[in-house]
Design goal:
The chain is mainly beta. It is built from four helices and 49 strands.
């Protein structure tokens, strides 16, 4: 419908007054009116008259109303979702001078009424899905707007639906929307958000999510008011390695597995210690781990201490452990590990303790191990290692504990060990070592334990061993040693155990051994010792074990032995001892007393006999006759 616009043009008189030069009235004329020229002045005023005429003609030809030249519809694009949705458009009409024409009414039409209809007020109603052009017409001017009717979005799908990332790593999520009819919404642009910005950040426009801390969060994509979401789990860089260890070693049957494989941060998993999100200590000893050590364990790049001892671990030691450059302690002892010691362990330059004892390892000690300059403890006891003890082991100048016992090492004891002046414990027993005991070992001034038993060492006991003033245990049993017991051993004032059992030692027992006041065990069994038992042995007030059996000792038992109030075991059998057992022995509280195979006899009095019967393990000979003999 068209209505006539309001006339907003100026009158002819106004135009004339504005554009025609005029002469104002004098004192007698009306102020502000136009005075046209008179006939008498026409001759003088011909030119102004012409101007007046032209002005009148122009006034007659000027239009009296505006003409519509443009129509603008707002908004230019109308988006609606679902049939029945509605919205209102507004049309603005302007004339040839760009002025807004008010009071006009445009004609509204739709190019496709199956998509959208429009009424006389510009109210648009969605009737179907698609595109339509809405026109607004006034006179010859036409404006247009686009009407887009989309199906309702049924759902927003986010992929991946669940993901796991390491702290510091990122994953890009993608989203697409599905119409009610199942079609995919084209060119959908999601807006992304996260449920926990502390754990996960996400770029609102790209969906790139970055893990910031351990835990779970939800990533949400919003498309035209509809949300879709996916889960994200942020884990420590060490998470995968721990999971691999758990699965490889039957973690479900561990004695202690609280927290493992849950959503809790790995620092809350039993026996796992972390600094931030990195494992620094794994303490799973004696925890019923059964199976191989997975190679992924080598990814725990920040770990300092790895304790896997006393379990049922099998298979080889993974070479990947050589990647643990921060490792200080590696304890794999008391398992069923097989194969060779990996050369790669020589890369662990911060390692202080390497404990592999009581496994089934074979081969030689890799030369790379001797590059571990920080190593203080090398524990390889109880394997099947072979070869000689390399002289290069002396490169480990900080070594305090060297345990190579119970293997198959052969050859001599390297003299170079004497340069390892920080050694406190040197255990080489139970091998096939040959040759003499190097006297140079007497230079190991800090040595507390020297265990060389169970080899095939020959030659004399070096008297230089008497210089080891801090020595607490000297075990030379089960070798082929010959010669006399050096009296210099009596200088070992800190010695608690002296084991010379089953050698070929000869000569008498040095009286100087009676100066070993800290001694709790003295084993001289199974040698070729002669002479009498020194009464000075009665000074060993802390002695609990005295083994003299199977020698060639003569004479009587010294009554001074009755001073050994801590003595529990006394073996003198298999000697040429004679005479009466001292009555004073009834003050001893023995658990085991063997004196068979001698010419000793037990006093017949009831007190002594009662004491003899009170000993749990007692093997002896005859009761003394009235003359004192058996």
């Amino acid at each position: 419908m068209r209505t006539r616009p309001r006339n907003t043009s100026t009158t002819c008189e106004e135009k004339l007054e504005k554009n025609i030069p005029a002469r104002r009235a004098g004192a007698d004329g009306e102020a502000g009116s136009i005075i046209f020229p008179t006939r008498q002045s026409a001759a003088r005023s011909r030119i102004p008259s012409v101007l007046v005429l032209l002005a009148l003609l122009a006034c007659a030809e000027s239009p009296t109303e505006p003409v519509a030249t443009s129509v603008t519809i707002m908004p230019r694009v109308l988006a609606m979702v679902g049939v029945g949705a509605g919205a209102t458009l507004v049309a603005e009409v302007r004339d040839q001078n760009g002025r807004i024409m008010t009071g006009v009414r445009v004609l509204w039409t739709s190019s496709n009424t199956s998509v959208a209809t429009v009424d006389s007020r510009g109210e648009v109603t969605a009737t179907g899905y698609g595109h339509a052009v809405i026109n607004a017409t006034y006179e010859a001017a036409v404006g247009a707007a686009a009407a887009i009717v989309e199906q309702p979005i049924r759902s927003v799908i986010v992929v991946p639906t669940n993901d796991t990332v390491v702290v510091g790593d990122s994953v890009r999520y993608r989203a697409y929307a599905i119409y009610e009819n199942g079609d995919t919404v084209p060119n959908a642009e999601p807006v992304w958000s996260t449920s926990d910005p502390v754990l996960v950040s996400v770029e609102a426009g790209t969906g790139l999510a970055t893990g910031k801390g351990e835990g779970k969060a939800t990533i949400t994509a919003t498309i035209r008011g509809t949300d879709g979401s996916a889960g994200i789990k942020v884990v420590s860089p060490d998470w995968a390695a721990l999971v691999a260890l758990y699965r490889a070693t039957d973690g479900d049957n561990w004695d202690r597995n609280q927290g493992w494989l849950t959503d809790a941060p790995i620092g809350q998993w039993t026996d796992v210690t972390t600094d931030g999100d990195r494992v620094i200590s794994l303490e799973l000893w004696d925890n019923n781990l059964n199976g191989p050590i997975p190679p992924e364990i080598g990814n725990l790049s920040e770990v300092f201490h790895l304790y896997l001892s006393d379990n049922g671990l099998t298979g080889p030691i993974p070479a990947s452990l050589g990647k643990l450059r921060n490792l200080v302690t590696l304890m794999l002892s008391s398992n069923d590990l097989t194969g060779r010691i990996p050369v790669e362990l020589g890369n662990l330059h911060r390692l202080r303790t390497l404990s592999l004892w009581f496994n089934n390892l074979t081969g030689t000690i890799p030369a790379s191990i001797f590059r571990l300059q920080e190593l203080e403890g090398l524990h390889l006891t109880g394997n099947n290692l072979t070869g000689s003890i390399p002289a290069a082991i002396s490169n480990l100048t900080k070594l305090r504990w060297l345990h190579l016992s119970s293997n198959d090492f052969s050859g001599p004891i390297p003299v170079e060990l004497s340069s390892m002046t920080r050694l406190y414990n040197l255990s080489l027993g139970g091998n096939d070592l040959t040759g003499p005991i190097p006297p140079e070992l007497g230079r190991l001034s800090e040595l507390g334990t020297l265990s060389l038993g169970g080899n095939a060492l020959a030659g004399p006991i070096p008297p230089e061993l008497g210089e080891l003033s801090g020595l607490r245990s000297l075990d030379l049993r089960d070798n082929d040693l010959t010669g006399r017991i050096p009296p210099e051993l009596g200088n070992l004032g800190s010695l608690q155990y002296l084991g010379l059992i089953n050698n070929y030692l000869s000569g008498s027992i040095p009286a100087e051994l009676g100066d070993l006041y800290s001694l709790t065990g003295l084993g001289l069994d199974g040698n070729n010792l002669t002479g009498s038992i020194p009464p000075e042995l009665g000074n060993l007030r802390n002695l609990g074990y005295l083994g003299l059996q199977r020698n060639e000792l003569m004479g009587t038992l010294p009554p001074e032995l009755a001073n050994l109030r801590e003595l529990k075991t006394l073996y003198v059998d298999g000697n040429g001892l004679t005479g009466r057992i001292p009555q004073e022995f009834i003050n001893l509280q023995l658990d085991s007393f063997q004196w068979n195979g001698t010419q000793l006899c037990a006093p017949a009095n009831g007190v002594f006999q009662a004491w003899l019967r009170s000993i749990p393990q007692q093997r002896g000979g005859a009761t003394c006759s009235s003359t004192g003999g058996p």
